[in-house]
Amino acid sequence: MVPKHFKRYQTKDGPDNFNFWLKLAQKDSIRVKNKVCVILRPDAVGDYVLYMPYLSGLRTLYPEHRFIFIGTADVCHLAQAANIIDHCLVWDRCRYEQRNAYWRQWLKQLSEITADILIYPCYSREANADEMVAVLKANEKIGIRGDDCNIDAETARYNERFYTKIVDIKSGNYHESVRNRSFLNKIGGTPGSSLPLWKTEDMDLVSGFLSDKQFPMPYLVVAPGASVADKCWPLDKFHHIIEFFLYRSSGSIFIMGGANEAPMANRLKAMSSFPDRIALLTGSLSLRQSAAFISKASLFIGNDSGLAHIAGSMGISGHVVVSGAHFGRFFPNPETPNINVYTHPMSCFGCNWRCSQKMAHCIVDADLDMDSLIQDLGNLT
């Protein structure tokens, strides 16, 4: 195996890390007889939400296998709401990227797993996950011949040697659901139904919160944050929508997101003429609890985020601002027509977040269709 294709080889500890990884990857593997299926999803919440019907399809394809799911903490938290996962392994991307003791411990743990089947069903593969595939022991390792969104093309092709089967699926400007379906079909499966995003105790918390009547119904969920700061619509535009709603209805606003988005939520409440009708839930809910709250909402307003995909999957009407970086791949989603998508068209669409502008004008200059919004808000009064 060529060191130059190993991630971060050209660093102080790179050669030692490479040799450690190489030793794990070259361990002899006996023919595994236990029926275990490992599913590797190292990506974000929105990707998992879009993948749920196809994960359900895998369960049908391998009904007798024990499922081990590998993903980030938030994604595993959602995956545990479904009864089809037998065990989750939570992966910490930030600690892994440091290539220190955690990285070594994690790879050693994975190298001790023996599975019948390993599936990495992501079109935009990444070097981190290919490293994991190399050390995992499985009779069959199935991946996708994808794009160079997260990994350079030469390394992606070189890393295909870690798999026993590489599946060719549709390239070009297709929605992610089309690729998910194509991959599942090519390995002999068919999509199932979307999976639950919360457990009973999560909905019990929501019911208890809404029963005290402190915040009157109906309520509008506003999610002003995103995983990347450049994906965020300006706060003054969110403020305009919030005031528009509160002036024209007797309902409430629930502002949701992670703990790091609390400052944005505090500013929006402080800017409002009706702060008593705004509930700040940023950082106070788990992702499953957030999904349960969104399921009872009358309307969702936000950026391209995991919460927006959650709202879409549950049929909640929504208005979402997206960039042109991957326009058409995640939003708009033909399977969730309940979500209205807004952007500012530019000639540089498809940049894969390699923005050539001083700011992301495709987001900053986007405006919601006020006629559509007025109609939705009118239905709530």
Outline:
The chain has about 375 residues and is of the alpha/beta class. It is built from 15 helices and twelve strands.
Secondary-structure map:
Elements: H1 14-25, E1 36-41, H2 45-61, E2 66-71, H3 73-79, E3 87-90, H4 93-97, H5 101-111, E4 114-119, H6 127-135, E5 137-145, H7 153-158, E6 165-168, H8 176-186, H9 200-211, E7 219-223, H10 235-248, E8 252-255, H11 262-271, E9 278-280, H12 287-295, E10 299-303, H13 306-313, E11 318-321, E12 339-342, H14 361-364, H15 370-378
Parallel strand pairs: 1-2, 1-4, 2-3, 4-5, 5-6, 7-8, 7-10, 8-9, 10-11, 11-12
Total strand segments: 12
The main pleated sheet reads as: 6 strands, parallel
| Overall form | globular
Strand order of the largest sheet: 3-2-1-4-5-6
Order of secondary-structure elements: HEHEHEHHEHEHEHHEHEHEHEHEEHH
Oligomer: single chain
Total of domains: 2
Describe this structure in words.
The chain is of the alpha/beta class. It folds into two domains: 3-186, Glycogen Phosphorylase B (Rossmann fold), CATH 3.40.50.2000; 200-378, Rossmann fold (3-Layer(aba) Sandwich). The chain is built from 15 helices and twelve strands. The strands form two sheets. A six-stranded parallel beta sheet has the order 3-2-1-4-5-6. Strands 9-8-7-10-11-12 form a six-stranded parallel beta sheet, with helices on both faces. The longest helix has 17 residues, at 45-61.
